[in-house]
Amino acid sequence: MKEKCPFKIGDMVIYNPSRRGYDLVDGERLEIGKEYRVSMIEQDSYIVAEGYDHPGGGIYWTEFEQVDSGATMNKVQVRCWKVPVPGAGTGDHLLITYPEGHYGHSLLSCLNCGEVYAVTVAKETYVGPPLKQKLSGLKCIKCGELLESTAAPYPDKFREENGTVCVYIRDKTIPDDEDSLIVELPDIYS
Questions:
Q1: Residue 47 domain-assigned (yes or no)
Q2: Could you tell me if 83 and 170 lie in one domain?
């Protein structure tokens, strides 16, 4: 009996076939070492990669490796201000940043679990890739959900302790520097 595939539709995987597995493929082959999104799983064991039409319907899952989910994301120091919001889940406050031009950090949060991430604006602007592309295949370090479908600008949208997704409208007045604090957050561009 074959083992059930541990991957889910939407996961990013790297094609790293065994010699035997590579030799079994007739016709067009996936590129070794390239990342692919799982578009379908057949018979609980065979992966169909997005954009690839395998003549047999899929490739056995052991020929793939999981793309790093981001669990090893580096942390970055971010200048923030606390904004009191009862029920916000972080000690009844939200964190807010005010990036200037191409400097500083903007924030995102996973609406599935509430984990907050930093986005280094200079890296997003000058190094890339664009944020939407960077989030593709990246999983939340707390809940494991794909950030491309669960991430939202924070604190504009945030998840309360009870799981409700709320909207926050930020004040246009920037607080004094002496009221700021430095926090360490996982960096999307690390």
A1: yes
A2: yes
Assess contact for 114 and 108: CB atoms under 8 A.
Answer: no
Look up the domain containing 56 and give its range: 12-66
CA distance 35 to 30: 10
Q: What is the pTM of this model?
A: 0.61
Question: Is residue 37, in this structure, part of any structural domain at all?
Answer: yes
pLDDT (tens, 9 = 90+) of the chain, 190 residues, equals 567 888 887 778 888 888 777 676 655 678 888 888 888 888 888 888 887 776 667 888 888 887 765 456 788 999 999 888 876 655 678 888 987 766 789 999 999 988 999 999 888 888 888 899 889 878 888 888 889 999 999 989 988 878 889 898 888 888 888 888 999 999 998 7
Has residue 144 been placed in a domain? yes
Tell me the C-alpha distance between 120 and 128, whole Å.
Answer: 10
